[in-house]
Write a structure and sequence with these properties.
Two copies of one chain form a homodimer. Chain A is of the alpha+beta class and 344 residues long. Chain A is built from eleven helices and 13 strands. Chain A has two domains: 8-150, 60s Ribosomal Protein L30, Chain: A; 166-335, PurM-like C-terminal domain (Phosphoribosyl-aminoimidazole Synthetase, Chain A, domain 2), CATH 3.90.650.10. In chain A, the strands form three sheets. In chain A, strands 8-10-7-11-9-12-13 form a seven-stranded mixed beta sheet, with helices on both faces. Chain A has a four-stranded mixed beta sheet with strand order 3-6-4-5. In chain A, strands 1-2 form a two-stranded antiparallel ribbon. Strand 2 of chain A pairs antiparallel with strand 3 of chain B, so a sheet runs across the interface.
Chain lengths: 344, 344
């Protein structure tokens, strides 16, 4: 490595774009024109509809540059968008990236960021087809727009849950929340801790699982868990015009989450309900279809837990505690939650 | 108006998204799912290909909040992306918007921004179908991704210009550059000045003209002028593997640009070549087709000027000065340009 790193402000925008085009490499499937013209030109699949979503990562709000490597941020930027495509049952296809970069950023940072983005892209067959570079007078900002495709007759929306449906969640919750706690406490000694931190930094989007759920046609509604189970359950219920009751005893989380929470004197459920960044899928499914869907996911190697049921909207959104009490579940805020009065 | 403005940090993200969904109103054509699910769901037109582009506007880099109204910024954000769709000959369709906002921003700012975006969207039949909101620890940032559609057999790329082709430019150049000078000098008294400032703040993208050029099938290559004629001519030539020679006497600009430049002791050509933000179209067209294309544009009410010709790449990119001398034309930087030695 040279003694002094080259900063992006030292090379022009033209050269930086040429370098990125080289890092990104050859055009992916369905890409007629990629980086280097006024716009990308893409060939949609016949009889599919287009999915489009974006998610921005702002330094100091969503990440700290000293706590995440450029490569991890590249992977994460794509992963959190992939999760949204997964939640519709779609197939990810193309990405467009806006980078707003401080001029003193080392050129190697850009190289490593794209390496991370590319490795995640290869895992999920996504090609980067265009983007935008700008100077930042402050924070580093990464904004990715992701396109996917889906057959319109199998797309799974947030609305569609009906009273009586069961609520299914993939995988386990609270890992990313525990990982963030560890990162903040700078305690990363144990291997267990590393796994939790990885869950936060580079989440695994449930693309294959979302597709499996959609093609099964068994799901009535689906959402990915980006802001926490409680918050996203509220979103799904609001879109569907229903209420829900979940059972604390059925929420899936590993022993490591319990340990990290307890060591910090907080309730594990706080991480599980409000920690966020899980990127698991929450699904509403009829009671008849629920066992079929659980089996389907488990046969594909994914754990699936039935955590509660959908109620009429007038019943609100609540949780059954281990002691049998039932309290309204807020969309965020453990403190208010546990101080609240029992409900019904 | 209330005495104290409500700030966006005071209302939650949920409420802000709901408010935006209301401002945006009903779903546009081809929009199966708009704002409010994990992703948008869009119905592409059969036998068309998809165009996708993005452009970011960063406070302190691309705009100053005190110099542009929220409504103007909303219009501008869409307009500069529309110009890229125009340069491919496409039909604009859908937009996705990322807003990174300081928490003390007045709620009325957001309302007015969307009003501007909506009014531009209505002019060009673009619907906003999704987006993302984030807090900014510093500058206000607006990143818009725009989708368009085009028949793959008429799309006009940057590459395709051949030696002997003529170079055509729509409209007039230098207005936005002069407008920016006036804005910086805070001299906005004359009506003429207002027109130049408007050209900078709310450019008129050549969507109709780009479509006309593409459907005529007469253009060999096309690019929109976002960074200045000189810079974008370099881009078109690089993509086509050609050189070019333009004629200073044929560059179209109004008397007002000449006056503003002269008043500040600079050459009008500096604004015309390097000022940027013109959002006119630069087209390479065969000598036989050039008069037909000029007539076509003029019949549609748009002025079109033949400003030079395409050369072999080995001839480089140059300009004939009024005194008959020929000098290499750099992609940016008037100072270096005029101090350079005559070429050939």
């Amino acid at each position: 490595m040279s003694e002094r790193e080259v900063e992006i402000g030292e090379i022009g925008e033209f050269r930086l774009i040429a370098r990125i085009a080289e890092l990104v490499g050859q055009r992916g499937e369905g890409v007629l024109i990629g980086i280097g013209d006024d716009t990308a030109l893409l060939e949609p699949s016949r009889d599919f509809c287009l999915l489009a979503t974006c998610d921005v990562q702002v330094e100091g709000v969503h990440f700290l540059r000293e706590a995440i490597s450029p490569s991890q941020l590249g992977r994460r930027t794509l992963a959190i968008n992939l999760s949204d495509i997964a939640a519709m049952g779609g197939i990810p296809r193309w990405a467009i990236l806006s980078l707003v970069l401080p001029p003193d950023l080392p050129l190697s940072w850009v190289d490593e960021f794209y390496a991370g983005l590319q490795s995640e892209g290869q895992l999920f067959q996504v090609s980067l087809v265009g983007g935008n570079l700008s100077r930042s007078p402050g924070p580093l900002i990464v904004d990715l727009t992701l396109f996917g495709e889906v057959e319109p007759d199998i797309v799974v929306e947030r609305r569609g849950a009906r009273p009586g449906d069961l609520l299914l969640v993939t995988g386990e919750l609270g890992l990313a929340g525990a990982g963030l706690l560890l990162l903040r406490g700078k305690e990363v000694s144990r291997e267990e801790g590393q796994e939790l931190i990885q869950a936060f930094l580079t989440p695994r989007p449930r693309v294959r699982e979302g597709r499996l759920i959609a093609t099964s046609r068994l799901a009535r509604a689906m959402i990915d868990l980006s802001d926490g189970l409680a918050s996203d359950l509220h979103r799904l219920c609001e879109a569907s015009g229903v209420g829900a009751r979940i059972d604390a005893m059925r929420l899936p989380f590993p022993e490591s989450v319990r340990r990290v929470a307890r060591e910090r004197g907080i309730e594990p459920l706080e991480l599980v309900l409000f920690g966020g960044e899980d990127y698991e899928l929450l699904v509403a499914v009829s009671p008849e279809d629920a066992p079929v869907l659980v089996r389907l996911l488990e046969d594909a190697g994914v754990s699936a837990s039935l955590i509660g049921e959908v109620c009429p909207q007038s019943d609100g959104i609540s949780m059954v505690f281990p002691d049998g009490s039932v309290r309204p579940l807020p969309s965020a805020g453990w403190d208010h939650f546990v101080r609240g009065k029992p409900h019904r």
